[in-house]
Amino acid sequence: MQVRRLEPLGEPLATPSAAGQPAYVRIAAEWAEKIDSGTLRHGDPLPTREELAESYGVSKTVIRDALGLLHQDGYLQSGTRRGTSVFRLQRYELPMYVLEADDRGRDAFNDAVEAQGGKPYQHIRVETIVPSPEIRAALALEDNELALARRRMRTIDGVPYCICDSFFPHSLVAGTPISDPTDIKRGGRHVLRELGFEMVRHRDSIRSRRPHAREISELEISTGLPVIRHDRISYLADGRPVRLMASAFPSDRWELTYEVEK
Length: 262
What we know:
This protein has helices at 16-19, 23-36, 49-56, 60-72, 108-115, 133-139, 170-173, 188-194, 213-219; strands spanning 76-79, 83-86, 92-95, 120-129, 147-156, 159-169, 201-209, 227-235, 241-250, 254-257. It is α+β, with helices and mostly antiparallel strands. The protein starts with 15 loop residues before the first helix and ends in a 5-residue tail after the last strand. The relative contact order is 0.12.
């Protein structure tokens, strides 16, 4: 792809809100907007530092700092032969409202990804844990109760796309397929239903934050890329919480969608 030469810094970047910002921050913001809007796509090459410095009328040090910021925020990748290029993987839509609301007998996450042309896979491990205060409160556990953690790393076409940890009262699911670290093709919600624990209500909490150490390592993301943390607590008809599903989505790879009926 031929990348067009940019005009030097001028009026568009000299707005009152941007005037007090360092030049490298303004340049990084302009390139981030180009990438977020789709003007530049994954793998598109950037001009050299020399070309960028000349286009913007700034020093190569300013360009270095701008590119460093974009690297930290996960917008760029560097190769010894190809130079610096855009890093933006395919963004998938995840319709959160259908993950629990169907009887298809298959994993709804996998169906959503496959419908968009991706090949999903999940690496699973199961642990018996002493729950943290957050997990204990979400599941309304007593002080001496244990939890079962079903930890999943979800990949698409071999690329890490999501960490999804589900926590259950240990006494409820011990010895069931949920405690087995193999893929539950029909989805865990169907297993709970078969056990007589049908989830009838869900409470979602969504927030954005900097990635934690495990997320940086397992999702292979940069330290400055925010993750979307999605927590869903699921309840039985009698009001008892039966599952906490805690997911971490790299913010550059997902769009979480909902539909609300009147």
